[in-house]
Amino acid sequence: QLQLVESGGGWVQPGGSLRLSCAASGFTLGSYAIGWFRQAPGKDREGISCIRNDGGRRNYADSVKGRFTVSSDNAKNTVYLQMDNLKPEDTAVYYCAADKKVVCNTGHFFVEDYDSWGQGTQVTVSS
Questions:
Q1: Which residues contact 17 (CB under 8 A, 6 or more apart)?
Q2: Contact predicate 99/37, CB 8 Å
Q3: pLDDT tens digits, 43-84
C-alpha cells in the first residue's frame, strides 16, 4: 500500500530555515511525481513544488521560487523540501503527494492531479 509520511515541521523565526521530509513506502520514487502542497487556515490548498526523477524535472510556484529547493534520495525513498528565508506567510500545514501520471513540467500544481497524500506537518513562521 502506497504511503507518504511528512516530518520536519516546526516553529521558526522569519528568515530561518527548515527541511521537510516525505518518506515514501509501498512504491519507488523513480516513476512517480511527488508534489508539495500547503494549506494555511481558511485558505485553499496551494501547490508549491514538484519533482519527478525520471526526466529530471523540478518545478516551483512563484511564491517559493528561489527560497525552496526540492530534492530526493532514492536510496532512502525520501523527498525533501529545503525551505530557506522563511516568511510569516509561509505558515501552513505542508503536505506531500504522489502520482504516477503527473509530468511535473510546469510551475502550476493541482490537488486533483494527485492520488496519494501524506498526513501533513505544521510549519509556523513567527517572531
A1: 82, 83, 84, 85, 86
A2: no
A3: 999 999 999 988 789 999 999 999 999 999 989 999 999 999
CA distances in angstroms from 56 to 9, 50, 81, 111, listed in the order given = 26, 11, 16, 22
C-alpha cell at 38: 500547503
φ, ψ dihedrals at 31, nearest 5°: -115, 20
pLDDT-derived band at 92 (thresholds 50, 70, 90) equals very high
What one-letter code names the amino acid at 95?
Y
Q: Which ranges of 1-127 does DSSP label H, i.e. alpha helix? A: none
The rounded Cα 82 to chain-centroid distance in angstroms is 9
CA–CA distance from 46 to each of 25, 40, 62, 63 (Å)? 24, 9, 12, 10
Taking the mean position of all CA atoms in its chain, how far away is CA 114? 12
The SS3 call for residue 89 is helix
Query: By the 8 A CB rule, do 8 and 20 touch?
Result: yes
SS3 state of residue 90: helix
